[in-house]
Design brief:
By secondary structure, this protein is mainly β. It is built from one helix and eleven strands.
């Protein structure tokens, strides 16, 4: 599954480069995004991601007036909390998202350019520290990469010249990490909501 996702992202990136023949079809977005993970339960364990703010960078190539391809990278930090019948774990985590997407613009005006997007990629969960009942442990988790399905939508509002304001909502479906620590696998389906705001430069 991870190999398939990597191939899709690679194809999107290569297609963007191959199609980049005309000027003015690229834009770069720099965004602040919320990282709001959904609680999941299973196998006697409840997993609760904490909420935080992250950074999202997007490169988008416009194929025509209505279609575009984009690649994304985001980074943020949170805590993955796990509650079992006997223990409470908290794993301090760095998250990196690598995704690609197809973007569709159903309409546009001089100022407003709404869009929808769908794609996929991966989220890398890198454990920084593990605590049990808020006490640091020598127990170390393992970095895990989870395939993810991406969807979302938003609007670009033209400000001046090549600069626009981007408001968007993105959602990611994935399997929650367990860091290969005993008893932390929920087997549930995770979801991360990423509302975001940022600036877009077209060139």
């Amino acid at each position: 599954m991870i190999k398939h996702v990597a191939v899709v992202v690679g194809v999107l990136l290569l297609a963007s480069v191959a199609l980049a023949q005309d000027e003015g079809r690229w834009d770069v977005g720099l965004n602040a995004v919320g990282l709001w993970g959904k609680q999941t339960s299973g196998n006697g364990t409840t997993q609760i991601p904490t909420k935080n703010i992250g950074f999202l960078a997007t490169v988008r190539f416009h194929i025509g007036d209505r279609s575009a391809l984009e690649v994304n990278w985001s980074r943020g930090n949170d805590s993955q909390k796990y509650i079992t019948s006997t223990l409470q774990y908290r794993v301090l985590t760095t998250l990196n998202e690598f995704t690609g997407a197809y973007v569709f613009r159903p309409m546009q005006t001089e100022r407003f350019k709404p869009f929808l997007l769908v794609g996929g990629g991966a989220i890398v969960f890198n454990p920084d520290n593990t605590l049990i009942f808020e006490t640091p442990q020598a127990l170390e988790g393992v970095r895990q990469t989870r395939p993810a399905v991406l969807y979302g939508g938003g609007v670009d509002y033209h400000l001046v010249r090549a600069l626009s304001l981007r408001l968007q909502y993105r959602g990611l479906f994935y399997s929650p990490p367990d860091f290969k620590l005993p008893g932390l696998l929920t087997g549930g389906h995770g979801h991360m909501a990423e509302p975001g705001v940022g600036l877009v430069i077209k060139f």
